[in-house]
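User
Here is a favour to ask of a fellow structure person. I am asking you to supply a protein in sequence and structure-token form. Please set it down just below, with no commentary around it:

Assistant
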Amino acid sequence: MPRFTSLPDWLAWQEGLHPKEIDLGLERVAGVAQRLQLQALQPVVVTVAGTNGKGSSIAMLEAILRQAGYRVGAYTSPHLLRYNERIRIDGEAVDDASLCAAFAAIDEVRSDTSLSYFEFGTLAALWLFRQSAPDIVLLEVGLGGRLDAVNIVDADVALVTAVDIDHSEWLGNDRVSIGREKAGIFRRARPAVCADPDPPASLKEVAAEQQAEWYALGKQFRIVRQADSWQWRGPQTHLEDLPMPALPGEHQLNNAAGVLMVIECLRHQLPVNAAAIRIGLAGAALPGRCQLIPGPVELLLDVSHNPHGAAALAGLLETRACKGQTHLVIGMLADKDVEAALAALAPVVDHWYLAGLELPRGLGADALRQQAAKLPEVADAPCFVDVATAMKQAFANAVEGDRVVVCGSFHTVADAMACRV
């Protein structure tokens, strides 16, 4: 008999199973995967690592490949509203029963091996992909790359998106150290794609050590920006008059360029025509990433939670000016560089609303303000117990033509979405 029959019970139990929420290393998860024969997936596998841009890149890959007629499995994290969002097969989130069956299969063979919440989820995704046999599987690294549970699978193509400083406690305090961790997903003699226009040297060094096929934005493949379209030039393929990615922000062009390099690397296994690329780029969607909800006071939701992501959001807000003023609701986790993230946003914000996050790693609103005390724009910002209260006040203060922006964490955006359901 399975340990539990409902998804909420399985997830609640997993949260307390392992003594550490984050416990990087492959030995435990690889041992269980081996018992379940999950490491040698038959579909083509693309693994995506990076500080920012992983989810966007997978969304574009998924849209293009599905438009080309392929069945796609995608594993991403974290989720916004439902755990099921983490595992998609052919564009649909898996149902509760499938997840429960996967968890039961893992629990049956793990013996006394303790698994973290993320490791359990990763194994469940691999188990479900083996059951459903899609044409291609897209795996998003949770943290780092080298020691992340996803890295027990050898990728046919590895993609690294933008690299910046985040999760320093586990990955290092500089881009070179962090880049080396991200590059841990590279495999010998297989394509290693980098979509960061200014990558740390460690990425190329690891690719050389692995004798991987190195493809870097600005070197082996390039973007040619035009007024309302763009060109992509790769080693074998040139694509002209491409639509701007549906996901907003100039930084998405870098992500899209990396995606097209992955597509080219797979051209012999999974050929994709130009029409599928154009339709996929124009149609990709990703909730919570610069997601715009129109109205008299428009709402923009973005999960940006580090200085690099905040700077990208600020760039979008600057280029996409609104008629009125910008009201920003922000809630962040305690292990983030709060001051640098808020400093990046300060030039484009008229009114601040600091929201507390009631989580083990969450910052209360007062603590959030204290961490940004050096910023005069934030020093006297009002504090709110939670995101819902902050949003309510922001919309009460806003007038037609203004916009409300919610950012700072997946949890912040999830709470904002829940307010509107």
The longest strand covers residues 44-49. The chain has a mean pLDDT of 93. The CA atoms of residues 113 and 288 lie 35 Å apart. DSSP finds 15 helices and 17 strands in the chain.
